[in-house]
Amino acid sequence: MAELYRITGYVKNYKVGDVRDALVQIGVDNLTYDEMRLAVMDPTARKENGAISKIDFIPQARLEVLVEGERTRDLVVLAITSAARTRKTEEGLVYWSKVEGAIRVIDGSLYHTQPVPQK
Predict the structure, then answer these.
(1) Which of 20, 43, 67, 92 is the most exposed place for a label (fewest CB within 10 A)?
(2) Is 84 helix (H, G, I), strand (E, B) or coil?
(3) 110: Cα separation from own chain's centroid
């Protein structure tokens, strides 16, 4: 069985459709999407009494995909970064990590294995 990877990407909100289309083109049909705000400190901000005087909140989207195998992981990372690229500052981040296990809620089966025996 191939290893599972969770790929998380932080991209601009207006690039989500482009990323989704890029993932569909390579055969990925499972995607989790959340809207969020990224806190960014103004580089010209001063510290006053230990607190930074100016923090901006930039709207971003968090995308998560669960894939099997290193080759698929590399394809998904390339698709996300290519589709999300804006060539501007604060455009995002993509990272991945191994998943030790996953289980389906509907039938109790491990991800891509036989169902777990019911008692």
Answers:
(1) 43
(2) helix
(3) 22
